Amino acid sequence: MERMFEIDSRYFNSLSRIFTPLVLDSVAENGHSEYLTEVCGNSGIMQNIDVSLQFSDFLDTIYNLLFKNYQNEYIYKNIIADKLLLDRHSVEDSRMLTEFRVGKCRADVVILNGTSTVYEIKSQFDSFTRLNDQLDAYKQVFDQIYVVTSPQQAEKLQDLISEKIGILTLTEGDTISTIRESVSNKHNIRAEVLFDSLRKQEYLQIIKILYGTVPDVPNTQIFSECKDLFMKKEPNVVHDITMKVLKNRSDSNLIRSFLESAPRSLLAYIISNVNKKTKLQALASMYTTEIGNILAAV
Q1: CB 20 within 8 A of CB 36
Q2: Domain carrying residue 36
């Protein structure tokens, strides 16, 4: 049975940074993290857990503490990865992208599984000030659009956004509840905005799929030539092809192999960093290391 303990709430924000490259990259590369040692010492965490606890179990312990007391953006991303990607789909057929560029915005989470679904996270610590601008940007690129928020903010949210935008909330049972389904937005997609979200190798691949070849022009002209060709096709056509190509941003075999050994608390982190194979292999090698040894190594 999980041991319950209390930590001064002023340390929750600092503890949440354990699930960022600040800590995880350092542990992977150096076997320790000065920040991790400092926050564990200052917060009193080490007075409440066994120093022989494996690093993977330590991460799950901190994650569970944050889930109960401080549901920040990472908690939301991890539950989306768990409940909306892995529980409902397979990594062979679906992909999850994080911080996907759309105009001047960054979409928190995008899931590709035959269509595109964007999830904008608004935790209890976020305001709705920029939300409609963000949603307007997403309407130009994605088919299904959802805002994921806390139960306390869901009612307020319904009055602030279009009824065509879906609303999801986190539940106390560590899952996601649907308050309102989204309505398909594919007819509003703007090809020029979608094109600008792509990497060069992606739009070249799409143009070759659409036309059988890519323009034979100097490098200085390839972007504009490809964009013109892209925009000649119907938005729903380029949307569907683009989403298939975007799945290639990550390898399903790598995702599966890294997730097999990972603690549940690292699902979103691994999916977001799956192309950094060496780093994730080094991090995985630390899972069974006792947390006391990691902290003492500084």
Answers
A1: no
A2: 9-70+273-296
Q: What is the DSSP letter of 81?
A: I
Q: Are both 179 and 195 inside the same structural domain?
A: no
Report residue 276 as tokens: 């950094």
**pTM for the whole thing?**
0.94
Strand partners, 112: 95, 116
Structural domain count, the chain: 3
Say if 168 falls within a structural domain. Answer: yes
Write out the two tokens for 24: 């995880």
Residue 258 domain flag: no
Contacts of 114 (CB under 8 A, 6+ apart): 93, 243
First CA to last CA distance, the chain: 31
Q: What is the mean pLDDT of each run of 10 residues along the chain (298 residues)?
A: 71 96 96 95 90 96 94 96 88 91 95 95 92 96 97 91 96 90 96 97 98 95 97 95 95 91 96 93 97 86
Contact 19, 269 (CB under 8 A): yes
Q: Is residue 120 part of a domain?
A: yes
